[in-house]
Amino acid sequence: MAVKNSRISGLYNKSVAERLAIVEEMVGLSKSDTSRIFSGQGLQTTIADRMIENVIGVYPLPFGIATNFVINGRDYLIPMVVEEPSVVAAASFMAKLTRDYGGFETSYSGSLMIGQMHVVDVGDPYGARLSLLQHRDELLTQANALDKTLVSLGGGAREIEVRVLEGTKNGTIVALHLIVDVLDAMGANAVNTMAERLAGEVERITNGRVLLRILSNLADLRVARARVVVPSQALDTEGYSGDAVVAGIVEAYQVADADPYRTTTHNKGIMNGIDPIVVATGNDWRAIEAGAHAYATRTGRYRSLTTWERDQQGRLVGTLELPMAVGIVGGATKTHPLAQLSLKILGVETAAELAQVIVAVGLSQNMAALRVLSTEGVQRGHMELHARNIVIQAGVPSVAADWVIAEMVKTRDVRVDRAKELTNQWERSR
Ligand code: MEV
């Protein structure tokens, strides 16, 4: 069910139970859904035991909700599973800032995955390439006969491509790509089955030996893209004009695009927004990470996955494009009960929609990071989070907590002793 309005102010000030009650109401969760989430026992050991080998238990992580997102004119609440503080808050903050200007717009290239077969020991690699292309129709027919369900739903093998890799450590290798529309699945099973079962036929056609038969995680035919445009005044920040912030974000991006040591951190910040949703929905975050960083090198150099520009009206324009091989059927997306609930909270209908939501959150996360880096730096925000922990440790009563946190951050003195002193001061002043 689509949420009517993802704008929730002050969610962080509420208790966990109150937050969950809000989400329950907005999304239409059942009592058993909410108790599964709240109990911290979202995945039973018996189910985990069927998911991987040698299970000894389950390993919980914080499950949060990023608010305020508008993507393609629709409101979304975003489930995020992540251990790092600031991630959920930063994504929500930027989503709030952008929603008045239309939020994020996205697009998707389609659910096409690549299955690879690497053929070695071929005497005539270029001849083999043409033989394979000549047998295109048979290869596609054979591949499609292996997955009648996928074909009946409108998916299946669509095309073949053949590359000749010269001068490798294994001589000349012929790389056959089988391009498969996997629809709402991540696609590994369908594609790997086809690649494995077609290998014999490929050997017959090429007179070579098929060495490897597996999908490529460089899913560059399955990219999702997001774009955001905000006027500079939206970025007005204490001590910095909106124009200065736009200039700072653009410059920060230019540095990230030039220096791989910085690019890595910059792209990591983007993945801070992406991985938590990939994890929350039971998808393969290693596949997404591998695809993202490989895609960032597609011009021959490791570069920023985002771009940040200033348009003629002085507005900030951000884009993000990367492979997004995520599914909403099969694997852990189906077996992990919290993955199912994450999809319910998101209210996405297709893998295509999920992919686009994920990329929009990645863009939001990068915008938040560059805004902070080009203004006050990250430490102030971190200090605030640290201060929140300290007030809990110091037993500061909740009515005094906000004031004590603000004082500690202002004086950059965040300690348990100091929190106790300030609490006494607050009590005396009442
Ligand atoms: C920290 O997890 C992410 C950042 O380092 C990203 C960046 O530097 O752009 C803040």
Question: Any descriptors?
Answer:
single chain, 430 residues, alpha+beta, 3-hydroxy-3-methylglutaryl-coenzyme A Reductase, Chain A, domain 2, Alpha-Beta Plaits, 3 domains, four-stranded antiparallel sheet, 17 helices, 10 strands, 49% helix, 19% strand, globular, binds (R)-mevalonate
**Ends apart, CA distance between termini:** 47 Å
**Main sheet: strands, sense, barrel:** 4 strands, antiparallel
Helix content: 40-55%
CATH architecture of the largest domain: Alpha-Beta Complex
- For the secondary structure, the number of strands is 10
Radius of gyration computed on alpha carbons: 25 Å
The number of helical elements comes to: 17
CATH class of the largest domain: Alpha Beta
Low-confidence stretches: none
Dominant shape: globular
Order of helices and strands: HHHEEHEEHHHEEHEEHHHEEHHHHHH
Q: What oligomeric state do the depicted chains represent?
A: single chain
User: Which strand-content bin applies to the residues?
Assistant: 15-25%
Give your account of this protein's structure.
By secondary structure, the chain is an alpha+beta fold. It has three domains: 11-106 and 250-376, 3-hydroxy-3-methylglutaryl-coenzyme A Reductase, Chain A, domain 2 (Alpha-Beta Complex), CATH 3.90.770.10; 112-215, Alpha-Beta Plaits; 380-428. It is 49% helix and 19% strand. The strands form three sheets. A four-stranded antiparallel beta sheet has the order 3-8-10-9. α6 packs across α8 (188-206), α9 (242-258) crosses α14 and α10 (260-280) crosses α14 (351-373). It is globular, with a radius of gyration of 25 Å. The site of (R)-mevalonate has 9 residues, from α10 and α14.
